[in-house]
Design brief:
Radius of gyration: 16 Å
Number of strands: 6
CATH superfamily: Integrase, DNA-binding domain
Largest sheet: 6 strands, mixed
CATH class: Alpha Beta
Strand content: 25-35%
CATH architecture: 2-Layer Sandwich
Oligomer: single chain
Number of helices: 4
Number of domains: 1
Helix content: 40-55%
């Protein structure tokens, strides 16, 4: 565990053991930031654990969910986080880009797209085993 000077955030080494043992405590959710990859983190709730990135885009702090632990491995989440953080460095807001893709879709189209995402994530999880 490392305290980041001036930032007020405590950073953790996000490993499989850390993720397995992380709890939200008495809070509804708790965010843990990674010491190895700034901007990458783990959000722990009462029922799920998800990976996210958090970075400033045009002076505004943005947080983007990458995926759930169990569907994605830590390595897969880190790889995706590096890509998203690079986009955010270039001023691209991942949530805004995601909204552009889903804006014109009907409800059935959105459901289909979400199903494809889950299948894609499950495939990668099986390949990693």
């Amino acid at each position: 565990m490392t305290r980041v000077a001036g930032a007020g955030k405590v950073r953790y080494r996000i490993t499989r053991a850390f993720v397995e043992n992380a709890t939200a405590g008495d809070r509804p959710q708790r965010a843990f930031f990674d010491e190895a990859l700034p901007g990458f983190g783990l959000l722990v709730g009462k029922r799920a654990k998800s990976f996210f990135v958090q970075h400033e885009v045009h002076g505004i702090t943005k947080r983007f969910k990458i995926g759930r632990y169990g569907v994605l491995t830590i390595e897969q989440a880190r790889k995706e986080a590096r890509q998203r953080l690079a986009e955010m460095d270039r001023g691209i807001d991942p949530k805004a880009e995601q909204r552009k893709v889903t804006k014109g879709l009907t409800l059935s189209g959105r459901t289909h797209l979400q199903g494809l995402r889950v299948q894609h994530s499950n495939l990668f999880a099986r390949l990693a085993e």
